[in-house]
User: What shape does this take?
Amino acid sequence: MPDGGMSRRGFVEAMGAAGLAEALGAAADPAARRASASGGGTIAWAADRVFDGESVLTAHAVLLTGAEVTGVRSTHKVPPHVPVQYEPGTTILPGLVDAHVHHMQWEAPLFLAYGVTTIRDVGNDLSWILARRAEASAALCPTILCTGPLLDGPTPIHPLVARASADLEAAVAAVRETAQAGVDAIKLYCGLLVEWLPAMAREARSHGLRTSMHCQGTGVLAAANAGVGEFHHLDGVLTDVWPDRPAGWLEVWGDSELATTRDAQRRFADRIAEAAMAATPTLAYWHSQWRIRAADHSPEAEAPGVPPEMLAWQGLAAIDPDLADRWRRAREAAEGFLRLLHERGVPILAGSDVPCGAQTPGLSLWREMCMLARVSMSPVQALRAGTSALGTLLGRPKLGRLQGGSPADLVIVRGDPTRGIPESPEVVAVVRGGAAHRPTDLLAEAQRLSASVTEDPWSAQFRAHAGGGPAEP
Ligand SMILES: [Zn+2]
Assistant: This one.
């Protein structure tokens, strides 16, 4: 705004702008919130800059009418009767989108408190997540996109949130019935047989749905050849580039011999780019696996808001400095590989894998964007990965963007994340469906909801895994 030629004071006077404290004071009143969310007139939100999901705009305001964005325009063109909420020294972003989550009810207000207004659940009990999705707009909860259960082979790793299939016919029926239930996409899981993948991806396409996969023994290229459009965690990469690798989970990337695969990694990255596959690397999850084993780990300080049961179920008392060090090297190797994908233009989505690794919902997506920026993305590219990228992939061009017709979801943060992404942002306000919220109110709601941690499908799954160390996601 001020950089647009008009002084801050001049802008405020010209627009009749209200301070955010005043605006949020009104919004804290439930009746006012309902009025603002139900079409009671247009308001404008303004800051020093607006990132609209694609580009950075100065001297612009975001106009909201009810639950919809009705325009992003130069502050000079905001009609005089429209009230403007303006806080100097801040940036407006689209509500953030976490592309890899397993939803539990306690997570919802925390996501919002850190500015995440849409989550994609990529593995949960089908009827439970469909019910949460249906009620999300009326609750203090991000918008939910979901894939239903992890569609897995005969013996699922996470049986309580998966659907097992014993043969090809059952696997295709699992896709069909999950699609018919009304999910937003299909998620395939590690235990599927490679020869089933083409028919499963084809069945998903026949319902207009995209397919993503947590690959492992099948490798990623087989999934790409089958028509799977996205892979998670970078898992399955080593199956393709290092067939005789030592046994283990992603920490194998920390093996000193991995460097011998560098040329194979480059060739693999070329083929992923040719296949137009997208990657959701969940680097924040990799980071968590290092930190939860490190000798100086402090879960309470590093994972604010995560209920103690979650910490206990994921074996966080198991300090193991040697394994921690292996995970740290693995994470660095994964970042190096992701750089190869980014250089080749492979679409990369920001996803955290909350609640795995006992990460704080929302805060972990900021960590993910920080890590993506370190890989070689500019801050604006990392912000795109955490806002508009999923909508682009899923053919929902309004999602994670601020433009006419987008949902009235935005976050106002202090400072300028378009020049450097903070690990821990100062969120000033969050607007979800047109209703404004203070982070402090959302954190208080999260505290109240933390008692629900024992009730959800993933609670039962974590309890079942407890004692076996941190669960694979
Ligand atoms: Zn996951």
About this structure: The chain has a mean pLDDT of 90. The first helix runs from residue 8 to 15.
